[in-house]
Design a protein that fits this description.
Layout lengths: L1 H20 L4 E21 L2 E12 L4 E16 L2 E14 L4 E19 L2 E14 L12 E12 L6 E12 L2 E2 L12 E2 L2 E13 L4 E19 L6 E20 L2
Parallel strand pairs: 1-13
Antiparallel strand pairs: 1-2, 2-3, 3-4, 4-5, 5-6, 6-7, 7-8, 8-11, 9-10, 11-12, 12-13
């Protein structure tokens, strides 16, 4: 019994020491209204294969500032009536309000798998997207991942209104990190490791409007809860200087135009 007691006391002490050495983040919560304006082209050179290109401008800071601009090029292939695959490249330019110019570009690759099924007039679809973003600025891999890899899972339901040009829809999406850096006390001595956690919850409603056979509009609203971690280490010693959990509630209003030749 004495040995068991000593073992339990030692185990408790080790557990407490580990808990004390694991830093707890400070918490910052913000709210923001954002907007997205987009125009693109969707061309089908051969049956079941479509090419897409587009530009998107994003506003943040309660619609008072330019956030960034996206330029995308992608392709999609319909394997059958209920399954398609796709790939997309996006050039991301972040806007510096003080310098009044776009800088620190990033390169993003998306790989998509999407399945769908129709139940009456409702079309249900599930899309899995592997998103990989490459940074062009120099970062400490203990603070920021480069490239950043995220798995995005989206469930969407569209309702086809009889004899109407409108198609309303709702969606729900999760963003799950695949290689987020784990926080350590000192990156010069502690081994590098990664963590997985849900970084974004998104719920959205929208409606697509068919102007004509070649011209389409899409109006939408997203509510995002975005959770991220800001990790900061002291450059010389490698000691953890700051660790903040940033919680942001985003209200995103968007409109997109698509041309189908």
């Amino acid at each position: 019994m004495r040995r068991i007691s000593l073992f339990l006391v030692s185990l408790f002490a080790i557990t407490q020491l580990a808990a004390q050495s694991t830093p707890q983040p400070g918490v910052v919560t913000t709210n923001d209204f954002r907007a997205r304006i987009e125009a693109g082209i969707d061309w089908e050179p051969v049956k079941n294969l479509s090419l897409e290109a587009g530009l998107q401008l994003r506003l943040n800071d309660d619609l008072r500032s330019i956030d960034r601009a996206h330029a995308n090029l992608g392709l999609n292939y319909d394997v059958c009536d209920y399954f398609n695959v796709g790939a997309e490249y996006i050039h991301i330019s972040n806007y510096d309000a003080e310098a009044k110019e776009f800088e620190r570009p990033r390169h993003r690759l998306n790989l998509n798998l999407e399945g769908s099924v129709k139940v009456g007039r409702v079309k249900l679809s599930l899309r899995e997207r592997l998103q990989t973003t490459f940074r062009t600025d120099s970062v400490n891999r203990y603070e920021k991942m480069n490239p950043e890899m995220i798995l995005r899972s989206r469930l969407q339901a569209e309702y086809g209104i009889r004899n109407s040009r409108w198609t309303p829809y709702i969606l729900f999406e999760l963003h799950n990190t695949l290689n987020a850096p784990a926080v350590v006390s000192n990156y010069k001595y502690d081994p590098y490791s990664t963590e997985n956690y849900i970084t974004r919850y998104r719920a959205g409603v929208g409606a697509k409007f068919r102007i004509s056979r070649k011209h389409r509009l899409n109006f939408y609203y997203y509510f995002d809860y975005d959770r991220s971690y800001e990790i900061d280490y002291k450059a010389g010693s490698g000691r953890l200087k700051g660790y903040i959990e940033e919680n942001e509630f985003r209200h995103i209003f968007g409109i997109s135009y698509k041309f189908k030749p």
